[in-house]
Amino acid sequence: MSRTRHRRVLETIGFGAVAAALVAAPLVAVGSAAGAAEPGVVLGVDFDDETTGDWTRSGEPVLGYVDAGDGKALEVADRTTDYDGISSPEVAYEAGVAYSFTMRARLPEGTEGTAGIRFVVATDYTWVGSTTISDDAWTTVSGTYTPAEDVTRAVYLGTGDLSGTEAGTPYTYLVDDIEITREGAGSEPEVVLSSDFEAEVAPWVGRGAATVARTTDDAHAGDASMLVSGRTAGWHGAATPIASLFAAGATYDISAWVKLAPGEEATTVKATVAETPEAYTQAAPAVDVTDQEWVELTGTYTRGAAVTGGDLYLEAGGETTIFLVDDVVITGQAVTDDWEPDLEGFVPGGAVDPTSTPVGAARGTGDVAALTFDDGPNGADTTELLDFLAEKDIDATFCVIGSQVTAPGGADVLRRIVSEGHTLCNHSTGWADMAGYTKAQVEADLKANLQIIRDALGDPEAKVPYFRAPNGSWGQTIPVAVALGMQPLAVSNTINDWATQDEAELTANLRTAMQPGRIVLVHDGGGDRAASIAATRTVVTERLADGWTFTLPQGGADGSGSGVELAFDFEDGTLQGWTPRATEDGAATVAVVEGGHDSAQAAQVSDRVHQGQGIQYDVTGLLAAGSTYEFEAWLRFDGTPGDMTLSARTETGGTSTYGNLLAITGVTQEWTRVSGKFSLPAYETAAEVYFETAWDSGNPGNTSTFLVDDIVFRTPPPATIEDITPLKDTVPFPMGVAIDSRETQGDPGTLTQRHFNQISAENHMKPEAWYDAEGGFRIHPEATALMDSAAANDMRVYGHVLVWHSQTPAWFFQDDAGQPLTADAAGQAVLRERLRTHIFDIAGNLADTYGAFGSDTNPLVAWDVVNEVVSDGAENPDGLRRSEWFRILGENFIDLAFQYADEAFNEEYAAPGTDRPVTLFINDYNTEQSGKQDRYFALVERLLARGVPVDGVGHQFHVSLSLPVSALEAAIERFEALDVVQAVTELDVATGLPVTEAKLIDQGYFYRDAFDIFRSHADSLFSVTVWGLNDGRSWVNDNGAPLLFNDDLQAKPAYYGAAGQDLPDRIRTATVFGGQVALDADATSAVEWQQLRLLDIGEAGAFQLRWTADTLTVLADVDGDADALEVQVGDTTSTYARDGSGDVDGVDADRTGGWRAVVHVPLDGATVGSTLSFDLRVVDGDEVTGWATAGATGTLSLVEELSFHEAPQASTAPVVDGELDGVWADAEPVTSAKQVSGTGTAVGEFRTLWADDTLYVLAEVTDPDIDVTGSDPWIQDSVEIYVDAGNYKNGTYRPEDMQIRVSAENVVSFGTGDEAAQQARVRTATSRTDEGYLVELAVDLLDAGGLDTFHGVDYQVNDASAGARLGITNWADPTGAGYQSNARWGVVRLVAAEPAPGPATGVPAKPLLSHDNWDGDGSFTVTSTVWWGQNAHTLTLLENGAPIATQRVVDATPKAQTATFEVTGKANGSYSYEVVATNQHGATTSRALVVRVVAASPGIPVVVHDNWDGNGSYTVSMHMWWGTNADTYRLYENGVLVDTQTLTPNGRNPQHAGTRFTGKAKGTYTYTVELSNAAGTTRSLLSIPVVVWR
What is the per-residue DSSP string for 1325-1362? Predict the structure, then answer.
């Protein structure tokens, strides 16, 4: 695959909001730039005549003129806006022709800070040649503009604000020598090399023994030429590489002027190309040359297709002839930047695994620094420095200049540098500004300097493992240096010694620059550096006395020291380099305060008004892009806790990229340790890491004060990429992963390439990523990195996303005045054109850079054309989300997006002969949920019916363990009915929190089942993509480790499941709520044990738990006569025997059929979020039955206390009408007081009642700003009611579980489940109140309701403003993950309404109990009677000490009071009943009544048959003549079940059933009948034989 080309400037689509102000003066057309195809000057002005020529003032600056060299420059004063400067007249520019824009610019001397400057082509506002200027020197601003169509445009100078000042602060800048030239149209020849040697000799270098140097002794034109000397053979001369000079197959005209040095004998000079593979081709024939006059050397050269490299060189006939060269001009076809280093026979610099991030870190940790010295060797100064370093036994790094080495004495000093153990750095052959060099020119210079160094050392393999660009002007030097085996060395921590040699000032500067863990840069060359050396001696001596050590920079020839450790404890009372991070709201207050983590001091971030305000640290050059780092810190909130992130800002090419490195959860108001691993994305010029609270959709979010201490960043031990089966080799479809540049480098890159063959950009191909802050179109550097990596590694790219309601620039939907576009014909026309331009610009950019789509060089194969256009609710008849796209264009925007994408990617920019090479998808989430799936399916059907070119349907599948995996298959199967391909586009599977080994194993089984489904539907799938490489890089990691690999890049059970490999056995888990039950007489019947279902211990019993910091309370409910309990927590096992003995405290009580015990097991400092290994075992003699698998333990997850309340029975069922009925006064409110996200957002008071089998909820929400404009239902003002009828608390949503969302406008939507079935269970109404809004709701409990039943519930308020969610408050679940799991919901108990006080004047009399179970069948009545005295108003029936029924009774004191309780379905056994009688004065408990059930199982069946004739057709009949009835009949033939029937019980009356047989073969058949009911099973006493004999 050929290398890629990067276009520098592309057509811009802009919003034109400031167009009218950009050019204040009228413009005058002065002609056309397209008059001829020859190169020429289109516009130019040098200000030497103290006028602006045809250019006019733009904006309101003050223009003047200042001296500049031999002429004048323009001074632009009082610049306050970006267009303050000058503007050109309008000029016609021809389509497809390249125009070069150049000027010189700077800030006046003494100006502090820097500013950006560029040319701006008006109307479409294309930036050309954007760069940064300072007061140091003149900077050349250059770039190319190539219009896509014939245009007439003015050009003005655009500038940015002065750094370190507020926006709009006036300042002055200078410009000079502005020129716009036409490069020539089409394939017309252009100048590919022009060397006049006025400033330098690059890219020419000496060949053989020859040296080249600039001389002013003679020149053909101008003041200087190149002197070629030192030759000892005819082929020695001046050379330049051809790799970037000559294109394969192209022909070039070569011209050079040559002359011999004075006194040289006449000879000839010629030009030759030494080609690779080895060949020598004449480029210009020899001409006679003397020392008297300049002679032109001319010729042509055509580079053959097989030529891979080589050098163009000039040589003289005389072997030692010294000659001059000037005004070399080569014209022909320009070579695109397909540079590749020529490494044949080359010895690299010697760095081990150099990275593209310039290193600014020193090896080692603590008080350590790396000394680096530039611009030597420099005679006495360097010698004095070496003496001092030897005296102190310090190793340093010397960045040497080739011309300094070849200067007298330079080689000797260089040899001493190396012999004394110092390390070398390549600093180029001279002091040239390399920013404008091509890569080939850089390569030539760096190789030439290496040759100079190695020749001086006499060692052709001498190591020079570092490179530093002169003046830090990197240009394209970094990738070249890395390719040549040199680690770029950062230009940082300088001391300004190029500007002054004041020793005191330099000493102070060096003290400041020398920071722990960093390099420092001092100059030993480039002039008199005595003060620099003296400052070095002073400061280094001081630091040695303070215990500092001095090492080398990170990396290097041996690779040692490549580990980073940055540590910050703030104990010195300073911020140690950390600074405030500001947002548009300014910066927070950041200071060192008392009270650190186990220390005196910490850093505090306070006075925050936005979540993005935090604390940051500059890691430019310290942390390398793509490398993995460990991180740990201690954090705490001084205010409302919440989630946080460790984030990063990186900068490349002037474009800043922001991203989260690590999600930080669980931070409280106590010091909390957080840790993780991360890597930085690719960057060039800047990188900062910072702490902030979690992003909240642009809202202020959590603005609490927080503190941070003991921060450490370190390099972990090298990761081992496991030698396991590549996942891509285990599936019959392309295997994709969503990444950014971090996963294209280092160990993450290796892992990506091993397991995946398709990549998607997680963020940087979304709509906003294609535009800079001013609305200018350009490809994002991150997208470039991904496309380049895919092209280099033969991977596919699935593009995400062209059109989306989110992450799209606001100006897309605004007019030139910044107002919303209207939804009329005019507004629609504007948006249609912007949509088309957006899509075509993307296609054109990628095709121009990587070749046509479908070609071998372009890896892009698919696009999500539109994303997330389907509504989550059914409120809109068309089922579509209401977005700005929809508001203006309606559903037609989807059609247009696909139409334009098809035209761009599959027609205009498609490779010839290809058939629609880019597959076009629609993509959405929650497609596994029935309601949204219906709407999605209907939309795709409509699109296909209209002929819209939709190729595929994407299922994001962001799911959790609570989802039945079968839902994924149902979604895929549903769309197989349509003529589309499908893709799994964004797969991840969250485990929920806390993440435990058990959940990770369960996740492995989920991935196994999911990938089995995908494999079975491979013919339908275009690809499957997981949304991230490792957990720490996932957008949902705070919901629980959702991906295939962990942050050590090791495979999880999820990988093994996806790959279809073996998985470990599942581990039992349980969620334990906080609390404690006292060990008293009521312990075994405490209400806490009724609030949650018990967990089975096999067939031996059940248990439930509560916890505090020091105690685990265990309820064990044991069946039978087992001897004891074993409780294992961690490695400690405790016992508790039925007789009360054992290792732990406890109480116990007998019950019918078994016993109960409550024990306290010690814990040590347990906290919310802790996990415990646990097992509870029942010991019965030699038989031991445990909750966990034998020999293993389960896992307990400790969570907050259970939220619990009681809902009274309604006196009359509320009318669901949104009105506050009087009946609601009977219900006590609970409040959604837990802030799940955001800060101080709306809360609601929730009242709950019940009647029959219906739960009623009333929510009164206090919210003065009601907003329902958000395009998603959960980002509208709304309440959510969660219902788990029967309180199963099983985590996974059952079909009966509900997430009901009701907006302030009564729009109802649902979460997981069958939308239609849920809608049938719910009635809602809403209304506005003075304080906010009211929601009233009724939900059917599906026969699980009734008095004294328990149900899982939670109540949530979503607070929104301006179309975005501000925050969430909940009553119960603090995690915000209730939409995925019911495990943390609260509990409501349905109770009787509190009766009005009756006439009783004292506690109730003790009831007498009786029963009617004389037949012993398990269904009977318990009667409670008070014959005379104080009555009760409530009677509660206890069975074996546990309440099973409650009823209200009439207080008729002092009359008799009788009540009955119906008991049914009891198994054989003894049951003890008590009644608790309660009134307003107290409670009384009856004496126990024992009821024995001996005939609960069905009566014994009798079996008969009618096969008296033996013919094989007969009926086997069952008769149960008297006894307890059965509900199930089973017939066994020869011991095998052959028939099952359902029976209807009818008291103790007879039951009958029969089974008809026909066509039985000869033989004997024996029949047995079983009858079953809830209490047990009985069998017929006799088996009846049936003989078939004929």
Answer: EEEE-SSEEEEEEEEE-TT--STT-EEEEEEEEEEEET
> Helix (H, G, I), strand (E, B), or coil: what is residue 1438?
strand
pTM: predicted TM-score of the whole model, two decimal places: 0.64
Q: Is 523 a catalytic residue?
A: yes
Q: How far apart are CA 145 and CA 127, in angstroms?
A: 9
Euclidean distance between the first and final Cα of the chain, in Å? 82
Could you identify the residue written with the tokens 């939709």? 950
To the query of whether residue 374 is one of the catalytic residues in this protein, the response is yes
Predicted pLDDT of residue 1448: 86
C-beta separation of 600 from 581 below 8 A: no
Mean pLDDT of 116-120: 90
State the pLDDT at residue 275.
84
Give 1204-1391's CATH code, choosing from 3.10.580.10, 3.30.1330.90, 2.60.40.1190, 3.40.50.2000.
Answer: 2.60.40.1190
Q: Flag whether pLDDT at 34 surpasses 60.
A: no
Which pLDDT tens digit goes with each residue over 1254-1269? Answer: 999 999 999 999 999 9
User: What sign does the CA torsion over 351, 352, 357, 359 have?
Assistant: negative
For residue 801, what is the enclosing H or E element?
strand 796-804
pLDDT recorded at residue 1536? 94
Q: What is the pLDDT of residues 1419-1457, one digit of tens each?
A: 899 999 999 999 999 999 999 988 888 888 999 999 999
Segment 1491-1524, tens digit of pLDDT: 999 888 899 999 999 998 999 999 999 999 988 8
pLDDT confidence tier of residue 1132, bands split at 50, 70 and 90: very high
1472 φ, ψ to 5°? -105, 125
Which is nearest to 1453 in space by CA: 1479, 1472, 1474? 1479
Determine phi and psi for 446, rounding to 5 degrees. -65, -40
State the fold for domain 19-182: Jelly Rolls (2.60.120)
Asked if the peptide bond before residue 1229 counts as cis, ω within 30 degrees of 0, the response is no
Helix (H, G, I), strand (E, B) or coil at 403: helix
Domain 757-950, CATH: 3.20.20.80
For strands 579-583 and 614-618, give the pairing.
Answer: antiparallel
Residue 104 Rama label (left phi>0; alpha psi -120 to 50; beta): beta
**How distant is the alpha carbon of residue 646 from its chain centre?**
12
Q: Which entry of 220, 422, 523, 1351 is annotated as an active-site residue?
A: 523
Give the residue among 1214, 1204, 1208, 1207 at the shortest CA–CA distance from 1336.
Answer: 1214
Beta strand 368-376 with 518-523: parallel, antiparallel or unpaired? parallel
Tokens 């036409």 map to which residue? 182
Superfamily of domain 1408-1493 in the CATH hierarchy: Immunoglobulins (2.60.40.10)
Residue 1411 is predicted with a pLDDT of: 95
Q: Which pair of structure tokens corresponds to residue 1145?
A: 């405290």
Name the percent of the chain in helix, strand, coil, to the closest 5: 15, 40, 45
The ranges of the chain annotated as CATH 3.20.20.370 are 368-496+512-551
Q: Quote the CA–CA distance of 323 and 238 in Å, as a whole number.
A: 10
CATH topology of domain 1090-1142+1157-1201: Immunoglobulin-like (2.60.40)
Alpha-helical runs (H) found in 1025-1071: 1053-1058
* Residue 158: closest CA among 189, 186, 135, 133: 133
- Mean pLDDT over 313-326 rounds to 96
CATH architecture of 1502-1588: Sandwich (2.60)
Pick left, alpha or beta for residue 887 (phi over 0 → left; psi -120 to 50 → alpha; otherwise beta): alpha
Find the catalytic residue in 374, 375, 709, 1117. Answer: 374
Give me the chain's average pLDDT, please.
Answer: 90
Fold (CATH) for 718-736+957-1063: TIM Barrel (3.20.20)
List, by residue range, all CATH 2.60.40.10 domains of the chain: 1408-1493, 1502-1588
